[in-house]
């Protein structure tokens, strides 16, 4: 005679199934946190281009500073809202020299990081460049590098992280905002990794 499993047995079986997945997810999150840069990029190696991903004013300011120091021939800002021009962006960056306007290009097509990678790849190819310095938030860097290297396998990409005040890598688990940013970014990283894997099949 067959009996239906009790609710307790079903819960136990579900727990046995979910526990390894949860353990793997947590281990992956810890690994991901360790991949996030925790210090400023100090390399003075000049690249063909400086690429800034929109999403924080400190990114633009850093990109403009690098351009002014000659760390790239041109600055490309990806994911800009339509209607915003170069001079408007320069006004957002304190002490940005007006003469830099001629060396800044804005990209309006991207609305996510994958779009940033595609948009930048098209611009890099058009300019004939072979290297770039990528400026984005430290917690955003692992996923950005994954997608940019996928889109531009033959382009040398130097990461240049910036460090927003709202994110603390060293004790993120104690800070709700930092924990949320990290978990959200880790989830997006897993999706990007899965999409890349599917496209390789």
UniProtKB/TrEMBL annotation:
CDD domains: YdcF-like (cd06259). The chain crosses the membrane at residues 14-34. The keyword Chaperone does not apply. Residues 48-186 form the DUF218 domain. Keywords: Membrane, Transmembrane, Transmembrane helix. Pfam families: DUF218 (PF02698). The keyword Membrane applies. It comes from the Bacteria. One of its GO terms (biological process) is Gram-negative-bacterium-type cell wall biogenesis. GO terms for cellular component: plasma membrane. PANTHER family: ENVELOPE BIOGENESIS FACTOR ELYC, INNER MEMBRANE PROTEIN, PROBABLE PERMEASE. This is Uncharacterized SAM-binding protein YcdF (DUF218 family). It comes from Limibacillus halophilus.
């Amino acid at each position: 005679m067959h009996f239906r499993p009790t609710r307790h047995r079903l819960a136990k079986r579900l727990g046995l199934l979910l526990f390894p997945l949860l353990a793997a997810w947590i281990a992956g999150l810890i690994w991901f946190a360790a991949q996030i840069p925790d210090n400023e990029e100090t390399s003075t190696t000049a690249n063909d281009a400086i690429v800034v991903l929109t999403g924080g004013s400190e990114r633009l300011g850093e990109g403009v500073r690098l351009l002014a120091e000659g760390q790239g021939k041109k600055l490309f800002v990806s994911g800009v809202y339509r209607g915003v021009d170069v001079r408007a962006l320069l006004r957002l960056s304190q002490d940005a020299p007006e003469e830099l306007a001629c060396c800044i290009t804005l990209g309006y097509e991207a609305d996510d990081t994958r779009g940033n990678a595609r948009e930048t790849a098209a611009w890099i190819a058009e300019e004939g460049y072979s290297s770039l310095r990528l400026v984005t938030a430290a917690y955003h860097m692992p996923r950005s590098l994954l997608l940019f290297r996928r889109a531009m396998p033959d382009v040398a990409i130097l990461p240049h992280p910036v460090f927003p005040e709202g994110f603390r890598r060293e004790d993120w688990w104690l800070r709700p905002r930092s924990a949320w940013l990290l978990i959200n970014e880790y989830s997006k990283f897993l999706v990007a990794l899965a999409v890349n894997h599917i496209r390789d099949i």
